[in-house]
Structure formats: structure tokens, C-alpha cells
């Protein structure tokens, strides 16, 4: 099963490669989808949190492998919708930074909770990430395309974390996950004081 997850992850990353070309300086985003797709990739805090969700899901295994990332993406879409609708989500930046620090700490501690609790933690943090994406949607963007774009990028980052975590699990080297978690948590602390 883990080999199938690895194959699916690699296929997803390879299929996204043409879209990533637009990340280079000098290219304009020509669609609302691409604008949304690039948003999670443009922030180090978003990248770290979303990779950490994938790593944590892989370390938990079982139903958490899909339930935790799905909870994140689903709640992120709700957060984006709230922001677009003008609902003020408080402490967005603090919530995003806290998500990086806490997710890193959960990896360091090899935290294991029931799947529903893990999905709830992911969902809580996703609300802040989604609100940030929604607030930064360009006025001329198609909202549905933009949302699909940031959901696709987030999913790919989760898949990348799951693939990396599955490789780590396959080689039975959980210390690598803990080291990665400590790097993520420290990076979150640095972002908080910078």
C-alpha cells in the first residue's frame, strides 16, 4: 500500500511540473487557477506547514494518511470562502506561524492521537491558511478557479510530505522525521521573530 502511495505521489508531482514553470521570475500568471496555485508555494510558512501535515499523516499511517490532509484542504477552502465573503478571521498570521511551530513540535514528539483529533488539529490550522489565501485573492480573479488552484497546490504539498514520510517509514528511520520536525519548528520560531 505504501508503494502505491509513493507511486501516486510521484505521478502527482510530475503532472504538476509544467505548472511549476510559471514560478520563475518574469512569467505572469495568466489564469485565476495559476494565481491560486502559486499562492501556497510563495510563502515559506505555508510550504512548511503543508509539508509537515503530509509528514505527520505518513507517520500516523492508516486512515490518517488521507483523513488528515483531507481535513486540512476542506477546512482551508472554508477559511478561503469566509475571507472572500468578508468574514474577519482573527489572528491569521499568528495562526499560520503557530501551525508551523506546532506541526514541527508534533513531528518532533512523534505525537499520536485518534484520527479525529489529528484531523481537528489540521483543520484548525487550515482555517488560518485558507483565510490568508482568500484575503489575498486578486479582485479580478475567478473565485472558483483561484480556490481550485490553491487547493491543488496544497494537495501536492501534502502528497510530497506523505511521499517523503513514506520513504522515511519504509527505511524505518523515524529520527529523520523528528529532525525534520525540529527544523520546521525552529523555522516557524524564526519566522515569528523576523
Please summarize what this structure is:
The protein is mainly alpha-helical and 194 residues long. The protein is built from eight helices and no strands.
List key phrases describing it:
signal, HupE_UreJ, mainly alpha, 8 helices, single chain, 79% helix, 194 residues
**Helix-strand category:** mainly alpha
Q: Helical stretch count?
A: 8
Portion in strands: under 5%
Count of DSSP strands: 0
State the low-pLDDT regions, or none: 9-29
What does this structure look like?
79% of the residues lie in helices and 0% in strands. The chain has 194 residues and is an all-alpha fold. The protein has one domain (2-21, 33-193). α3 (44-60) packs across α7 (143-170), α4 runs antiparallel to α7 (143-170) and α5 (92-108) packs antiparallel against α8 (174-193). The protein is globular.
Topology:
Elements: H1 2-20, H2 32-41, H3 44-60, H4 64-84, H5 92-108, H6 115-135, H7 143-170, H8 174-193
Helix pairs in contact: 1-7, 2-7, 3-4, 3-5, 3-7, 3-8, 4-6, 4-7, 5-6, 5-8
Amino acid at each position: 500500500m505504501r508503494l502505491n502511495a509513493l507511486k501516486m505521489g510521484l505521478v502527482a508531482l510530475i503532472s504538476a511540473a509544467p505548472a511549476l514553470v510559471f514560478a520563475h521570475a518574469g512569467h505572469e500568471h495568466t489564469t485565476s487557477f495559476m494565481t491560486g496555485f502559486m499562492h501556497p508555494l510563495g510563502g515559506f510558512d505555508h510550504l512548511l506547514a503543508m509539508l509537515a501535515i503530509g509528514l505527520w499523516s505518513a507517520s500516523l499511517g492508516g486512515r490518517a494518511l488521507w483523513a488528515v490532509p483531507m481535513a486540512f484542504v476542506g477546512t482551508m477552502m472554508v477559511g478561503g470562502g469566509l475571507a472572500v465573503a468578508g468574514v474577519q478571521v482573527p489572528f491569521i498570521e499568528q495562526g499560520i506561524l503557530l501551525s508551523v511551530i506546532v506541526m514541527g513540535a508534533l513531528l518532533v514528539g512523534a505525537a499520536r492521537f485518534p484520527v479525529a483529533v489529528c484531523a481537528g488539529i489540521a483543520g484548525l490550522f487550515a482555517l488560518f491558511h485558507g483565510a490568508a489565501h482568500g484575503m489575498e485573492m486578486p479582485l479580478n480573479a475567478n473565485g472558483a478557479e483561484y480556490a481550485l488552484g490553491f487547493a491543488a497546490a496544497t494537495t501536492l504539498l501534502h502528497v510530497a510530505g506523505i511521499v517523503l514520510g513514506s520513504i522515511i517509514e519504509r527505511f524505518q528511520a523515524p529520527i529523520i522525521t523528528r529532525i525534520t520536525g525540529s527544523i520546521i519548528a525552529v523555522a516557524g520560531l524564526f519566522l515569528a521573530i523576523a
